[in-house]
TrEMBL record:
Modified residues (4-aspartylphosphate): D55
UniProt keyword annotations, A-Z: DNA-binding, Phosphoprotein, Transcription, Transcription regulation, Two-component regulatory system
Protein source organism: Neoroseomonas eburnea
Pfam families referenced in this protein's UniProt entry, alphabetically: Response_reg, Trans_reg_C
Protein name, per record: Response regulator
Domain OmpR/PhoB-type residue range list: 134-231
CDD domains, alphabetized: trans_reg_C (cd00383)
Any one biological process term the GO annotation gives: regulation of DNA-templated transcription
C-alpha cells in the first residue's frame, strides 16, 4: 500500500518542497506538493490522499490549524507534521490537534519515508467502522433519512426534488465511496444521462446541503472519478 500511496506535501519553503517531492517520488510514492493551506484545501477537495505531510509554520493558516480543521470536518486522513519547533510541548500540541506523527526539522529524508510507511501500515491495519445500514446521515446541522429520502434541519424538512432526493440517497447508501457519474445515472434511473446532466444535479443538491456550495464539505468532487459523500457535524 505504501508504495502506491498518494501523498500531499504542504510547505511554503519552495526548495524543501521540491526536494521532498523528488525524494518521495523516488521512494515510490505518488506526490502532490503545494505551498500553503489554501492550496492544500483545494487539492483535498479535488483528490483523495493517503497521507498529508504538513509544515507547521506557514503564512496564513498554519499546519496545526489546517489539521485541526480537517479533523473537525470529519476528515481522518493520516497527518505527519514537519516543524522547526521540536520541544515536547510542541509535539503534544500537534497530537492534540489530531496529527499522527511529528518530525522536527532538520530531519533525514530516509526517516521521513520510514515514518510515512509506518503510518500508512498502521492506518491499513486499523479496523474501519461501518455506518449502520440506512441510518440517518448527518450533514452539518441537517440529517438525511435514507429510507424516507427526507432532509431535515432546524427549520423542518428541506424540500428536495425527486432527482435530488434520489441522488442524495445513492450517495448516502455508499458513504465514503466514490460513485462514478455512470453509477449515479444508473441509481437515478437515467443511465443515458450525460456527465453534464449529473454535474448539474449535484450542483443543485449542493445548494440545499452545503453552507458554501463553492467549497463543499459533504458532497465532494473526486477529479476524473466522480463524487463522494463525507458526512460530518
Amino acid at each position: 500500500m505504501a508504495e502506491t500511496a498518494h501523498l500531499l506535501v504542504v510547505d511554503d519553503d519552495a526548495r524543501l518542497r521540491d526536494l521532498l517531492q523528488r525524494f518521495l517520488t523516488e521512494q515510490g510514492f505518488r506526490v502532490t506538493a503545494v505551498a500553503d493551506a489554501a492550496a492544500a484545501r483545494r487539492s483535498i477537495s479535488a483528490m483523495m490522499f493517503d497521507l498529508l505531510v504538513l509544515d507547521v509554520m506557514m503564512p496564513g493558516e498554519s499546519g496545526l490549524a489546517l489539521a485541526e480543521s480537517l479533523r473537525r470536518e470529519g476528515n481522518e486522513v493520516p497527518i505527519l507534521m514537519l516543524t522547526a519547533r521540536g520541544a515536547p510541548e510542541d509535539r503534544i500540541a500537534g497530537f492534540e490537534h489530531g496529527v499522527d506523527d511529528y518530525l522536527p526539522k532538520p530531519f533525514d529524508p530516509r526517516e521521513l519515508a520510514l515514518r510515512i510507511r509506518t503510518i500508512l501500515r498502521r492506518a491499513a491495519q486499523a479496523p474501519t467502522v461501518q455506518p449502520l445500514a440506512n441510518a440517518p446521515v448527518q450533514l452539518g446541522h441537517r440529517w438525511f433519512d435514507i429510507e424516507r429520502a427526507e432532509l431535515r434541519g432546524p427549520d423542518g424538512v428541506v424540500r428536495l426534488t425527486g432527482g435530488e432526493a434520489s441522488l442524495l440517497q445513492a450517495l448516502a447508501r455508499r458513504v465514503g465511496e466514490v460513485l462514478s457519474r455512470e453509477e449515479i445515472g444508473t441509481a437515478l434511473g437515467t443511465p443515458e444521462a450525460g456527465e453534464r446532466a449529473i454535474d448539474v444535479q449535484v450542483t443543485r443538491l449542493r445548494r440545499k446541503v452545503e453552507a458554501d456550495p463553492r467549497e463543499p464539505r459533504f458532497i465532494q468532487t473526486i477529479r476524473h472519478r466522480g463524487y463522494v459523500l463525507r458526512p460530518g457535524p
